[in-house]
């Protein structure tokens, strides 16, 4: 509630943050560091939660969801974290939303070989439409 969001790649600033997501080159949940940009990083939902079937390499979004998704859903639903409603919703949200984010962020194609059709309404495509065009003279994404 009282958190300040800092957008930076400055290691000195990152070192002072309580939680770091998608930058810093470190995955260490004990220190709340959730980046997937290391050559050695291979974690999936299944590797971190063996009771889950998904083997798609996690993005930073997937890491945060893996570690906090059940807790957040439980709080929103007013249900126990290990209850059937939270478990079912956690699984469905991962399978039908977060896994796509993980795959797209890690460059994992939705199909082997040539896709049979274009995916133009993915989350990545929608976010991409918010970015300035490559030749737009105003490239500041913070202007809005």
UniProtKB/TrEMBL annotation:
It comes from Chaetops frenatus. One of its GO terms (cellular component) is nucleus. PANTHER family: METAL DEPENDENT HYDROLASE - RELATED, MYG1 EXONUCLEASE. Belongs to the MYG1 family. This is MYG1 protein.
